[in-house]
Amino acid sequence: MLRICDLLIDAGISRRDLAGATGINRDRFTRTFVHELHHRNPAEHARLVAAIETFIRRTPACMAWLYAHGLAMVAIWDSIGPAPIRRRYPTSHGRKVHAPQAQPAMVPGNPQNVEQKEGVIMLTHAAMKHFKLFRSPFIGEIGQEKDIYLGEEHIFLREMMMETARNAGFTGINGECGSGKSIMRKAVAGRLAAEGIKVIFPVIIDKSRITPSSLIDAIIMDISEETPRRSLEAKTRQAHRLLKNRAASGLTQVLIIEEAHLLSVKAIK
Predict the structure, then answer these.
(1) Does 67 map to a domain?
(2) Less Cβ crowding at N or C end of the chain, within 10 Å?
(3) 54 and 158 belong to one structural domain
(4) Widest distance between CA atoms in the chain
(5) Which residues contact residue 33 at a Cβ distance below 8 angstroms, ignoring those fewer than 6 apart?
(6) Domain around 27
């Protein structure tokens, strides 16, 4: 593997960025930079090298990398040995691709927060104009449990969730958007907190990367200051130890997951 691979990875340059500036495609990149197989046409290879060096000179992050490592431009073509198996390559490394992956897929959240779902419109501007309303009456009106209108179904739902939390049960709640699931979760979380029950509430950040590992990471970060271990087995043992120690001290804990239908079967299990 050539040193230019390290430069591109550390500078956050994807192969798409490089292709747009030089015309090198993915296969050519792998053959030339990873497997060190030069183009059969010397003139074409020389043109490619010149185009890449021009791109690097015009990219501040690349020049900063060379300066920080005390290297001249020619050093990017040095061989640095075989490609590491687990090393990420620029095809999936650039800022456009890796910026979302730099953040965990799930993080600890506040179970008593209720956020308006993106794209959900409770009252259109036309309806507000028709009824001569200057603000939506459905935004920010619920500050405490007494502000919630509780029908029979809501009361049943609240008591079922409370019993589940008190008696180590498992409950799934489903309903249409706007039916009050998040509001009831907030009301129940408030009651649980008043009873001294710890609510663990992982929030889904990236729907595409929800795994058992990311779920356990969120649980560990919610109940401790420890850094989650690397392997799934190690972090599972870590979470079990933390939960067991807290239970031994007399603390009751309950896990609430909003949008749980997004979890994979493995994550649910």
Answers:
(1) yes
(2) C
(3) no
(4) 80
(5) 1, 2, 4, 5
(6) 3-101
Dist CA 100 CA 95 (whole Å) = 9
What burial class does residue 159 get, using C-beta atoms within 10 Å of its C-beta: 0-12 exposed, 13-18 middle, 19+ buried?
Answer: exposed
Beta strands 198-200 and 106-108: pairing type? unpaired
Residue 138 confidence class, pLDDT cut points 50, 70, 90: low
What tokens appear for 106 in the block? 């799930």
Q: Is the pLDDT of residue 18 over 60?
A: yes
* 174 contacts 204 by C-beta, under 8 angstroms: no
User: Cβ distance 24 to 5 under 8 Å?
Assistant: no
CB 108 within 8 A of CB 102: no
How far, in Å, CA of 264 to CA of 144, rounded? 33
Q: Has residue 35 got a pLDDT over 80?
A: no
Global pTM reads 0.51
pLDDT value for 187: 86
Q: How many domains does the chain contain in total?
A: 2
164's CB contacts (< 8 A; 6+ apart) are 170, 171, 254
Alpha carbon distances (Å) from 121 to 126, 131, 176, 212: 12, 16, 14, 33
Q: Residue 47 has which token pair?
A: 């043109």
In angstroms, rounded to a whole number, what is the distance separating the alpha carbons of residues 40 and 163? 73
Instruction: Tell me the C-alpha distance between 243 and 231, whole Å.
Output: 18
Looking at residue 36, its amino acid is E
Provide the mean pLDDT of the chain.
77
Q: Structure tokens of 74?
A: 């020619």
Q: Are residues 155 and 260 in the same domain?
A: yes
CA atoms within 13 A on the CB side of 94: 10
